[in-house]
Automatic annotation (TrEMBL):
GO terms for cellular component: peroxisomal matrix. This is (S)-2-hydroxy-acid oxidase. FMN binds at residues 82-84, 125, 153, 214, 236, 269-273, 292-293. It comes from Zonotrichia albicollis (White-throated sparrow). It holds the Pfam family FMN_dh.
């Protein structure tokens, strides 16, 4: 066991721990952004530019931070984003994160995860492979195992250029496998870069599960997503790991929410490191947010327990920010509740 003498107060403490104790190749893979990492870093900086307009004397003695996503209640509006290869952080891998999203590129199989967390809220993240029959089977396995939604990740026709991964010659250690793809004879780089919007119809023909599209950053694509019948949109730039120099997700969220006009649920991920970031995202119209790297840091710290600690800290910070801003219930992504002022330093939370 690694030393755990640090007292964990905020998510950056978990980051420091993971950086110190993970093997360099794993840390570099988790931390990586594309090219100069400017979008990765901008995801975080953009939150810092947003300021609250807090209101006082609003009786925040009783607070309700529950919300619903696609009809299911969650205890507070934070979920776990799909991130690859959890066994690089903790031996149990995705079994420890099974209450979140599970992905194609996991080091545990769909079946192992279902067994580890029966009955939990679970969505399956899909990459479409050139071998469509394999993708079809994955979708159908996920549906049969009780996953409640499909997330189609749209921003990875090819993997972005992550310099440290190139320098390190990153690949999975021989004892770790992409278990969901075993038996299909697929090389790991068999993703289909010819996927288009029409493939949403193909996916729809395979499953009755709600489809959520992940990786949307513009009003034009948000319109297309609604037109193609998805049930949800995750505003995401893959944690800045794909196209560098694109917008920070919290900035893109505003135009996506405006374009969608409440027709489907909108979520956001990227750069969420504090409870006040969650509040800002909600105030700007997200129904729920997802954390990627912070969940991996929690896993690296203490497996499932470490992840729970990350979530608990984020929940406490979120609750406190809400109370200090004069809010006592979660707005459920109803963007009309908040006045989004078009000033340089955007102010949120004014109703
Ligand atoms: C190590 C790592 C692996 C990832 N793997 C996937 C993946 O397999 N599928 C996917 O849709 N997104 C993947 N993502 C992107 C995350 O789902 C999410 O968009 C991003 O991590 C959010 O940013 P954050 O890390 O700043 O919270 C990955 C991100 C990281 C950091
Ligand atoms: C063949 C591509 C696999 C990438 C899986 C993980 C991922 O999305 C990442 O960002 O890393």
């Amino acid at each position: 066991l690694l030393p755990r003498t640090m007292s964990m107060v905020c998510l950056s403490d978990f980051e420091a721990y993971a950086k110190k104790y993970l093997p360099k190749i794993a840390w570099d893979y988790f931390a990586a952004g594309a090219d100069d990492c400017s979008t990765r870093d901008e995801n975080i900086l953009a939150y810092k530019r947003i300021r609250f307009r807090p209101h006082m004397l609003r009786d925040v003695s009783v607070m309700d931070i529950r919300t619903k996503i696609l009809g299911s209640e969650i205890s507070f509006p934070v979920g776990i984003a799909p991130t690859g290869f959890h066994q690089l952080a903790w031996p149990d891998g995705e079994k420890s994160t099974a209450r979140g999203t599970l992905l194609t590129y996991s080091t545990c199989s769909l079946e192992e995860i279902s067994e580890a967390a029966p009955g939990g809220l679970r969505w399956f993240q899909l990459y479409i492979h050139r071998n469509r029959a394999a993708s079809q089977q994955l979708v159908q396995r996920a549906e049969a195992l009780g996953f409640q939604a499909l997330i189609l990740t749209a921003d990875l026709p090819y993997t972005g250029k992550r310099r440290d991964d190139v320098r390190n010659g990153f690949r999975l250690p021989p004892h770790m496998k992409v278990k969901n793809l075993e038996g299909y004879g697929l090389p790991p780089n068999s993703l289909d870069p010819s996927v288009t919007w029409n493939d949403i119809y193909w996916l729809r023909s395979l499953t009755r599960l709600p489809i959520i599209i992940k990786g949307i950053l513009t009003r034009e694509d948000a319109e297309l997503a609604v037109k193609h019948g998805v049930q949800g949109i995750i505003v995401s730039n893959h944690g800045g790991r794909q196209l560098d120099e694109g917008p920070a997700t919290i900035d893109a969220l505003v135009e996506v929410v405006e374009a969608v006009r409440g027709r489907v649920e909108v979520y956001v991920d990227g750069g969420i490191r504090k409870g006040s970031d969650v509040l800002k995202a909600l105030a700007l119209g997200a129904k729920c947010v997802f954390i990627g790297r912070p969940a991996l840091w929690g896993l690296a710290y203490k497996g499932e327990e470490g992840l729970q600690e990350v979530l608990r800290i984020l929940q406490d910070e979120f609750r406190l920010s809400m109370a200090l801003a004069g809010e006592y219930f979660v707005c459920n992504g109803c963007y009309r509740c908040f006045c989004m002022q078009a000033c340089k330093i955007r102010s949120v939370m004014d109703r």
